[in-house]
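note to self — DONT lose this again. spent like an hour looking for the file last time. sequence + predicted structure for the chain T wanted, 473 res
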Amino acid sequence: MRKVLAGVRLKRLREERNLTQQALASAIGISLSYLNQLENNQRPLTVSVLLKLGTAFGIDLQLFSEEDEARLISDLREVMSDPAISETIAIAELRELASNMPAVGRAIVSLHRRYGRALDQLAALAARVGDDRQGDVPLPPSTAFEEVRDFFYARHNHISQLDEAAEHIAAEMKMPIGRMGTAIAMRLFERHQIRMEIDNMLSAEMQRHFDPVARLLRLSAHLRQGQQAFQLATQLAFLEQGELIDDLAAAGTFTNSQSQSLARIGLANYFAGALIMPYAAFLAAAEDARYDIELLGQRFGVGFETTCHRLSTLQRPGAHGVPFFFIRVDRAGNISKRQSATDFHFSRFGGTCPLWNVYEAFAQPDHILTQVASMPDGRTYLWIARSVSRGQGGYRAPRKTFAVALGCDIRHASQLVYADGLDLSNPAAATPIGAGCKICERPACPQRAFPPIGQPLNADPNRSAFAPYAAMR
């Protein structure tokens, strides 16, 4: 154990026992001046003094434990990372709080956890009525990413102004489908005097770097041709559609500048996808291929995930495609992308369902999995899922792996090649899934992790409503 400054805790111990400084000093066999220095953090609390305190008062030595302090600091850091807290709290301040006023620190952690549970309950109630609102009180988004997701969700993941602008430019340039990178690079050079350069020093994470002074756009050498075209189109979006993008972002109900900046990037990416995969041409190809994702990716020169993303945007009035839901998750269940062209409810606070085939995709890399799944409200959906992976270099370089899923209401399933051979009309053939244990009302689910919020767990071990949960504890 290291020596620690514990003046406030010593004072609290003395006050709880109604002792004077002299009485406490005498009880543990130290001088009054030494105790005064300890209480004023002028001297550290040593192991020998700590042992004397334990012998004299029978206190729990965990009160002065370094591990207990580190645990509290970790809990406080988690609290302060909440986007609802706008102040930046230094680690040194948290350490001071945990060291000198641990009871106050624990109270803060407890209050924040109660706040989190209250948000979960509010989310569960809102989910049960099919809305992200409870009364007139909107649910606060957890991050800037959530605000931007809500921005696109409210527009059914279709931004008509950008789609039309991208389609007009694609037609004007007579861009070759599937080989648009060169055409976009030429437009950047001819209209904006911007040169493109492939840079081996840029990481796959950086992808694109634009130097406005040198008029140089550097792209990472890790990018495939389709990804290069996408990054070129994104830069073109900022240059030629910047005013429109600013107006669209300003129209969003964002609470801070970070969310608005992220929305601008999202809108530029939307334009890039619409330029590489022009609406009318892409919709016609999708219907002709019966929404075969791999065939569409090959024709337009893009990857599986990018194709899925574009398929979820085909909601032009008078020229609708199948209304898809699109989601991307990692192995831990974190949802990093979530878009819906219709009203499918993605849980924001309750997690997702382990019975959903999007998680099975990790166990079968590069294989397309299909699933007919029913929700607790009785609606049934067809889901297509596959894992996607990207690397950043050689043998030892880390790789990112996600699972992406594309889903649609069962009434549209016959339009998809993936429905061939599936029993779409038999309710018993559908896998029962939910939006997450916290808001799912299926009590007999073998994968239930905990009871729904607001529903008590039966304490009778012989009649527990959530026996699978209890058995796995």
